[in-house]
Write a structure and sequence with these properties.
5-stranded mixed β-sheet, about 35% helix, elongated
């Protein structure tokens, strides 16, 4: 045991306490130990919140470099600060028994502000901020940076109501504020309260020495929490919490939480398994959160939507956005605005033998203009399954349905009763249907049931594919954007318009939004 084990640490009071704890434990085992302190980027840059610095492992990177340069043998960290992926050549050597994992609120006068509309709370943690705003949405959360001592002093010198700290940090340096509340409802950061020791992978002597410090229950729990974090792809820039515990019956429970930055949306998951069969808990918790909208919350939390790859010219629901593959970033916006027209009762209350409805907008306009019971439509022909279902629900049976207007026109020429049809359409309708019918001596009475207006927006250069759901959305897009992208279209009619302008056009097998999304998932990486 002649080798001196050099312990690298940050030079804050808390970090030095942790390093000296490891030093004393190693010395008790008979090892020679030396502590070397350095400043990290996270300690030097105090004018920005952690999540704005955009660096993973901001408190560990400096020590990683020192270890790989052989300036130190091991590094001691607050485990919650350590990235889930360690640098190549560095491994986890030990996890010490966990201390208090709770967050606590230190307040200045009294806690009555917690029941009031206004309150000011300080924290540099996005996770704490999001959970506080989720519980107290009318409060204000301000940024608080620095080591534990300086943060507490800033609270004393401010007009804030309180500040949030990790209980373990305050306890370790003996800083015990007079007024504190344990935030038992707040899910802590993954591995909060635990100390991690890392070493070089090829230093067998040091790794064996550190292995004697390892606390297995803490290792199991923190590993689950960090795996949950890894699967969600979070870090300092996402509001993620996780806590695993082992009870007296050796049952392992993992609770995970994901929030939006403003705290308005929160997804939680909790699973339990016997010790030894617990390894899938992190995956189960993460998948549960993903299945309920977690992917969308993650992109919102991390800001990855700025690098959008797919843009929909129709607003998508959250459920629809969740259908995209994880690595496909999508934005959506309505490129056409539709407003129903008031249709005269003189038209709607008379008996009409043949009626054509090519969109749900036309159906909506009809039922807003007159009570459906007053309509006297003998034969109704329509385009699209959703339009058919809407007609059946509000008006009555559908004589025949086709997937696009051109095919419907061809059917009517062959099978329609009589030689006259009433077509409830938009001001921006295509010519195919009325032209085909007129060429075959069928009189078309067009009624402008709704007005369609172009509402284009400029699409980012990073976008590679555009989703179109009607010819009108194609034309609206072209008013402000280039055609050097891939077009994904809901049907043949929309595709026909897109092909006039785009080199690559894909068409969904079924004319539904979900089918277009499936088409993107199947073809996006092949383009």
């Amino acid at each position: 045991m002649s080798k001196v084990i050099r312990i690298g640490t940050r030079d804050s009071e808390l970090a030095l306490w942790q390093a000296n704890t490891v030093k004393n434990k190693l010395k008790a085992l008979g090892h020679k130990v030396k502590v070397i302190s350095v400043k990290s980027t996270g300690d030097l840059i105090l004018d920005k919140p952690l999540y704005e610095l955009g660096i993973t492992g901001i408190f560990t990177k400096t020590l990683d470099v020192a270890m790989l340069n052989d300036d130190i043998d091991i590094a001691v960290h607050s485990m919650k600060d350590v990235p889930t992926a360690l640098p190549k050549g560095i491994v986890q050597a030990a996890v010490l028994e966990r201390a208090n994992f709770l967050d606590i609120l230190a307040f200045k006068k009294n806690e009555e502000f917690m029941g009031e509309k206004k309150g000011i709370i300080a924290t540099g943690s996005l996770r704490r901020k999001a959970q506080w705003l989720n519980r107290y949405p009318t409060h204000t959360v301000v940024d608080l940076r620095g080591n534990v001592n300086s943060r507490y002093q800033k609270l004393e010198d401010s007009d804030w109501n309180g500040a949030i700290f990790a209980a373990a940090g305050l306890e370790r340096i003996g800083l015990e504020p007079e007024n504190t509340i344990g935030l038992t409802w707040m899910v802590p950061a993954p591995a909060q309260g635990a100390i991690m020791v890392v070493a070089k992978e090829d230093d067998e002597f040091v790794r064996e020495a550190c292995a004697e410090l390892n606390h297995k229950p803490t290792e199991i729990c923190t590993q689950l929490e960090r795996e949950f974090l890894r699967i969600l792809e979070g870090g300092c820039s996402a509001p993620i919490g996780a806590l695993a515990t082992i009870d007296k019956e050796n049952e392992v429970t993992l609770k995970g939480v994901l929030l939006t930055v403003d705290g308005k949306k929160k997804l939680e998951a909790e699973f339990t398994a016997p010790l030894g069969k617990h390894t899938y808990l992190a995956k189960d918790c993460a998948n549960s959160i993903f299945s309920r909208g977690g992917k969308l919350l993650m992109t919102s939390a991390t800001g990855t939507l700025e690098n959008t790859k797919i843009f929909s010219t129709k607003n998508l629901t959250q459920d629809q956005e969740e259908l995209f593959d994880t690595d496909i970033k999508v934005k959506s916006e309505d490129f056409i605005k539709v407003s129903p027209n008031r249709i005269s009762n003189l038209i709607l209350k008379k008996e009409i033998q043949n009626v054509i409805l090519t969109s749900q907008n036309a159906v909506e306009s009809l039922i807003k203009s007159v009570s459906p019971e007053e309509l006297k439509f003998k034969n109704i022909y329509c385009v699209g399954g959703k339009t058919k279902r809407m007609i059946k629900k509000y008006i009555g049976p559908v004589k025949h349905q086709e997937k696009d207007a051109k095919k419907l026109a061809e059917y009517l020429v062959e099978y329609m009763e009589g030689t006259e049809v009433t077509y409830f359409c938009s001001n921006l309708r295509l010519n195919d249907l009325p032209t085909i019918l007129a060429e075959n001596n069928i009189q078309v009475n067009e009624i402008e049931a709704y007005t369609t207006k172009h509402a284009p927006a400029e699409v980012e250069d990073s976008v590679e594919g555009i989703l179109f759901f009607s010819p009108s959305t194609v034309n609206s897009y072209l008013l402000k954007n280039a055609t050097n992208k891939v077009a994904y279209c809901i049907g043949e009619t929309t595709a026909a318009e897109a092909k006039k302008h785009f080199d690559t056009v894909h068409i969904a097998k079924i004319p539904t939004v979900e089918s277009v999304i499936e088409l993107v998932n199947q073809t996006y990486r092949k383009n």
